[in-house]
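Onboarding guide, step 5: your first structure request.
Type a short instruction followed by the sequence, for example:

Predict the 3D structure of this protein.
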Amino acid sequence: MMLAIENLHVYYGGIHALKGISMEVPEGSIVTLIGANGAGKSTTLRTITGLVRPRQGSIKLKGRDISRLPTHQIVQSGVAMVPEGRKIFRNLTVRENLMMGAYHRSDASAVQRDFEYVIGLFPRLEERLSQKGGTLSGGEQQMLAIGRALMSGPSLLCLDEPSLGLAPLLVREVFKALESVHDEGRTILLIEQNARAALKLADYAYVLETGVIKMQGKASDLLENEDVRKAYLGG
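The system replies with structure tokens like these:
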């Protein structure tokens, strides 16, 4: 199992944000976590990556508990996150942004191989390597944020709302790239408000409501589920 979360409780002050959730991400799969705003989706990712500490429960990556590790060690263990809102370095060039993703790596030839893979995955980035990140369009910034995460050589790629603020055409482009990344054998955990796109891409899905997992199952089954359709797919 790539990632196993068990009985995870997270608080923000007096607010009980995650109320004992358990979920699994099998190696080589795409798992999505869908839910409304404020359901706890981003909190789940922030806890996996060490930005928030759980009060109770465990997070295991390939059997090793990472729930108390600092973020940089979690990254070194093979977890990369594409944060909500992209959070690229606006004053650095595209090339510099990508290389920041590989800051902890010393395997120069493998880093170069990953760099070539990323610009092959996103040809638009290759055309803009010397441009500053802040001059890119929203869609290009999202590609850059995904590319930067891939440069860390992750075994688990976590994405927080990658379609947010993107035109439908660009959403399709980003999701097609994620499909290619998955085809390369990477494991993906996708947090996404665009439930339809997420369920079409994923193998398995969890539905989160106010810090509790209300439903789970094969993504294709949830896509056809009446309750899911009413709540998240517009009927």
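Each response can be followed by summary notes, for example: The mean pLDDT is 95.
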